[in-house]
Design brief:
heterodimer, A: 360 residues, alpha/beta, Rossmann fold, five-stranded mixed beta sheet, 14 helices, B: 461 residues, five-stranded parallel beta sheet, 16 helices, 9 strands, mitochondrion (chain A)
Chain lengths: 360, 461
């Protein structure tokens, strides 16, 4: 993993710029109130959010494969001891069962927090998510809903995960009206966004960047707080080009921004956070200012969510654009083991694309 | 030992197959050098490691019969006789019934006391369902309805199972159980409004005909995908269990749907989570044109319950009394013992699959005719209540003509009732309509004004 880090330029610490008084910040990071915060990694932040969700709502449940002993990524550590095995429990190894069960539980007015062990294994539950969860409210004319449903799943590259422990399947779910898709970039974001997702009255698919579970460390307020869904955040202001991303990819993009700055290119970096329904306005405002757009994600470029952003922004900002919208994404191959460094949208790929877009 | 070899190999294979084996018990600061498969193997598969340790430490002796393997789930005895479990029992699981084909009470039948009023209501509802089906089917044939599905031949399962439940039991139906709604008080107008997708439809004209649902009547809105409601029923049952409710979830399904993965997921989850849910499978022999001989090789559905650790019964689905008894008892067991129960009701789909189907193309007429006449569940039950002096020819005539008039009236009303407004196209996708949908609605409204000829005139702006 250390090798991977060097190779991809992943940083051991996410150095968030959210506390710099940025006008777009939606974070709770409020210097005036200065809430107590300690440094935590991402999985601990998730764990805190789950504890708070369970504590604040007696009708909340956490379940999935191996969650009872704390989960393979330790995100559910301590929950079963604290809240009992009727509220925190292992399920059989069956994703369609987990999500189907969760929908039923949520339909009875509970908060069903289901874990899919890896996003790569969410596909057996695709039908339950696409045909059931997403349409539960609509098809009943709002007589029934499963809004209390949140499906958590670790996604993305991890250095040695290959085909079935690395995928970023977010685009599949972004094509489904009725679902929300949320991806945090850091511990503080993860805690606030997860609490919002759990309490949002709509089914949410919450993808967690598993590479950052332990690598990303930042100060996380210890209290109960929520970050708004469907609000993007400008995490770095700039004037020459807008970069849009989410999750783990943002740290790569930020490094590219820093390097580009050294060459005199001012980059604005936006964390989309919620992919559907997404915050077009923030991206549009930024592109109107910079005149250029680059989108980067780990998922294969073809049919990725970057395509949707590109099309929408071209529709809205065509005359303002000074260069074609650039996409720096995963290759259109399955996610490979040995070739992972070749597959990935690396910092230098992003940097090159920034330069060619700015100098178009 | 041969058996053991197989078993242990299975364990190894499961370990290999288990997709996250390498991730289990991952430690925070693991260096890349520690990622040798062996290390992960031990950490990751602690259960199988535990089992293997047990295997090696077993005190072997000459007499297999005296030994037992302490294995998760209970002791397993050994045998030196190599025996494969047969694929089926020699005799098929018998079918519980109370009334014979003529509606005569069988001697020694275990009958829950059914009073006159309940019996009359059951019969009344079965007839209502029949009349409703006939008229709606014809209305579809005349082009007045877009689609319809009849329950012909399955009236007893529909009504008698509903009669055995309480209004607090949550129903997750497939699509051939409108009788359950009827029993619970869904009005003929409510049925008709759904079929027309008019303003009276609780689903706001969004779903195909026959996708009923009623929050008030605890009947979860139907969706077309098969068996998806089974794992959902377990979630609902689990909630009832946590709330200590005197109620269960009831999931209906057909024989074809038992081949879906969700059927197996639902049964397994229900067993493991000890959820009070009654699974009712209407085995009517046909999934559209696919006969059960092409659907599964087990002795029907009831035997599948045992493999999941679920108690089950096979019942004559055309015997309303037997269905009533079986479901009453299943419900009671599900709630008092907090466990799932599987009920397989043998019946026959006398009608076509739907109005888009002609079943005479794939099954013989005499087969349909036999089930329609000799094994007719409605006439069988009528014979029984008539013999009890609870029903007369006169009442029969009055009921059928009265229901017919009522249904015809609801059609006239339903046809005239206006369609849901354009706003209902966009609402309820989320709890609050997001900006992309608001934009699309605005654009659509402009288009509708610009090109009115392109849009249905009966959808109000």
């Amino acid at each position: 993993m250390a090798t991977g880090l060097t190779r991809f330029g992943r940083r051991m610490r996410w150095v968030p710029s959210v506390c710099n008084g940025r006008q777009f910040s939606t974070s709770v990071c409020d210097k005036d109130h200065n809430p107590p915060a300690k440094s935590f990694n991402l999985y601990t932040a998730i764990n805190q959010a789950l504890h708070i969700a369970m504590e604040t709502d007696p009708r909340a449940y956490v379940f999935g494969e191996d969650v009872g002993f704390g989960g393979v990524f330790r995100c559910t550590t301590g929950l079963a001891d604290r809240f009992g095995k009727t509220r925190v429990f292992n399920t059989p190894l069956c994703e369609q069962g987990i999500v189907g069960f969760a929908i039923g539980l949520a339909a009875m007015g509970n908060r069903a927090i289901a874990e899919i062990q890896f996003a790569d294994y969410i596909f057996p539950a695709f039908d339950q998510l696409v045909n059931e969860a997403a349409k539960f409210r609509y098809r009943s004319g709002n007589q029934f809903n499963c809004g209390g449903l949140t499906v958590r799943a670790p996604y993305g590259a991890v250095g040695h995960g290959a085909l079935y422990h690395s995928q970023s399947p977010e685009a599949f779910f972004c094509h489904v009206p009725g679902l929300k898709v949320v991806i945090p970039r850091s511990p503080r974001e993860a805690k606030g966004l997860l609490l919002s997702s759990i309490r949002d009255p709509n089914p949410v698919v919450f993808f967690e960047p598993k590479w950052l579970y332990r690598l990303s460390v930042e100060e996380v307020p210890e209290h109960d707080y929520m970050l708004p869904l469907s609000e993007a955040q400008v995490i770095r202001e700039g004037s020459d080009i807008t970069l849009v991303g989410w999750g783990a990819q943002l740290s790569i993009m930020e490094q590219a921004c820093i390097d580009a700055e050294k060459e005199g290119i001012s980059c604005e970096l936006i964390d989309l956070k919620t992919l559907i329904p997404w915050d077009k306005e923030t991206v549009e405002a930024s592109v109107r200012k910079t005149g250029r757009l680059l989108i980067s994600h780990e998922a294969p470029v073809t049919g990725g969510f970057g395509a949707e952003i590109a099309a929408s922004i071209v529709e809205r900002c065509f005359l303002r654009l000074e260069a074609p919208v650039a996409r720096v994404c995963g290759l259109d191959t399955p996610f490979p083991l040995v070739f992972e460094p070749l597959y990935m949208p690396t910092k230098n790929k992003v940097l090159d694309s920034i330069k060619s877009t700015v100098h178009y | 030992m041969a058996l053991w070899l197989t078993r242990s190999r299975t364990l190894v294979l499961q370990s290999l197959k288990r997709k996250h084996a390498f991730w289990a018990a991952a430690t925070p600061l693991r260096s890349s050098s520690s990622s040798s498969p062996n290390v992960f193997w031990v950490n990751g598969r602690f259960k199988s490691t535990f089992a293997m340790t047990q295997l090696h430490s077993l005190p072997f002796s000459d007499s297999d019969d005296e030994q037992a393997l302490d294995f998760p789930g209970g002791k397993v005895t050994y045998t030196s006789e190599m025996t494969f479990i047969p694929e089926s029992q020699e005799k098929r699981v018998p079918c519980y019934r109370v009334l014979d084909d003529n509606g005569d009470l069988l001697i020694g039948s275990n009958l829950h006391q059914m009073g006159k009023e309940v019996a009359r209501k059951i019969y009344n509802n079965m007839v209502t369902l029949q009349v409703m089906d006939t008229i709606f089917y014809e209305a579809q044939r005349q082009g007045r309805l877009s689609f319809y599905v009849t329950s012909s031949g399955e009236e007893a399962i529909n009504i008698a199972s509903a009669a055995a439940l309480t209004p607090d039991d949550v129903i997750l139906a497939q699509y051939r159980e409108p009788g359950v709604l009827l029993w619970r008080g869904f009005t003929l107008q409510e049925f008709t409004d759904q079929l027309y997708g008019n303003k009276g439809d609780y689903g706001k004209g969004r779903q195909m005909a026959i996708h009923y649902g009623s929050k008030k009547l605890n009947y979860v809105t139907i969706s077309s995908p098969l068996a998806t409601q089974l794992p959902q029923a377990v979630g609902i049952a689990y909630s009832l269990k946590m709330d200590k409710k005197d109620a269960c979830a009831v999931a209906y399904t057909g024989d074809g749907a038992t081949s879906e993965g969700d059927f197996h997921a639902g049964l397994n989850f229900a067993a493991v989570l000890e959820a009070p849910v009654v699974f009712i499978c209407r085995n009517n022999g046909w999934a559209i044109s696919t006969n059960i001989s092409e659907q599964f090789r087990s002795d029907g559905i009831v035997v599948k319950g045992q493999a999941y650790g679920i108690r089950g019964i096979r019942v004559d689905g055309n015997d309303a009394l037997a269905v009533y008894n079986a479901i009453s008892t299943a419900r009671e067991m599900a709630i008092t013992e907090q466990r799932p129960i599987l009920v397989e009701a043998l019946t026959y789909r006398v009608g076509h699959h739907s109005t888009s189907d002609d079943s005479t193309r794939y099954r013989p007429l005499h087969e349909i005719e036999y089930w329609k006449t000799t094994r007719n569940p409605v006439s069988r039950f009528r014979n029984w209540i008539e013999r009890n002096g609870w029903w007369s020819d006169e009442e029969e005539t009055d009921l059928r003509s009265s229901v017919k008039k009522q249904v015809m009236h609801t059609i006239q009303v339903g046809e005239k009732t206006e369609k849901p407004p354009v706003a209902d196209l966009f609402s309820d996708v989320y709890d609050v309509t997001p900006s992309n949908l608001r934009e699309q609605e605005k654009q659509l409204r402009q288009d509708m004004i610009k090109y009115p000829q392109d849009y249905p005139s009966d959808v109000p702006l």
